[in-house]
Amino acid sequence: MSSAPTSSNTTDNSQQKPQERNGPPPRRRQGRNPPPPTRTRYQQTTQGGTQEKKKPVFVKVDQLKPGTSGHTLTVKVVEQNSVPQKPGVASSHQRPVRIAECLVGDETASILFTARNDQVGLMKVGTTVNLRNAKIDMFKGSMRLAVDKWGRIEVIEPADIAVRVDNNLSLVEYELVNVEG
Fold it and tell me: Which spans does this entry mark as compositional bias, Low complexity (predicted)?
């Protein structure tokens, strides 16, 4: 037997060159929490192309009911009362919140509107506004109209609206009743 080295199929890893890759890197395995899918814009399409936006359906103030939302209405501001902020409520890391209660209405009824921050400047006495995507909030058993971040307030040219203040929906007190069936 000779002790001379023979060629074998085994290679020394220290002298092996790294393999070069052509093309994109390999896909990574998904772990327990895969990354969220990329967001795409969705469009409703019909046979003739993209669908037109629906015209808003304007409602009157007397048609508002507790717990409803998505209302579009045209109202006139009758009065505005600034709500004083309680001392100690606002912390140092939050900006102060301006709140005003405005009595708004049309020829059918009136209701209190809660204006917050930038909305307070838009709701001046005597102005006519379009409220889009407004909702009804309940406060101490009575209805309040509000527009959150998903809604919009548009000041429009003054309209000749005789506001019916004797039918104030915010003065009606509601009680939550559980119905068993």
Answer: 39-50
**Dihedral angle of Cα 61, 71, 119, 53, to the nearest 10 degrees:** -140
Other beta carbons within 10 Å of 62: 15
Cα(131)–Cα(9) distance, rounded to whole angstroms?
81
Domain ranges of the chain: 61-86+94-167
Residue 145 pLDDT grade (very low, low, confident, very high; cuts 50, 70, 90): very high
Instruction: Count other Cβ atoms within 10 Å, centred on residue 146.
Output: 18
**pLDDT of 34:** 61
Q: Which residues of 151-176 are buried (b: 16+ CB within 10 A; e: fewer)?
A: bebeeeeeeeeebeeebbbbeeeeee
Mean pLDDT over 113-138 rounds to: 91
CA distance 4 to 79: 107
Distance separating alpha carbons of residues 57 and 59, to the nearest angstrom: 6
**What does the alpha-carbon distance between residue 131 and residue 127 come to, in Å, rounded to a whole number?**
12
Least confident of 47-61, 110-124, 135-149: 47-61
The pair of three-digit structure tokens given for residue 28, joined into one six-digit string: 């990574």
Q: 61-86+94-167 sits in which CATH class?
A: mainly beta
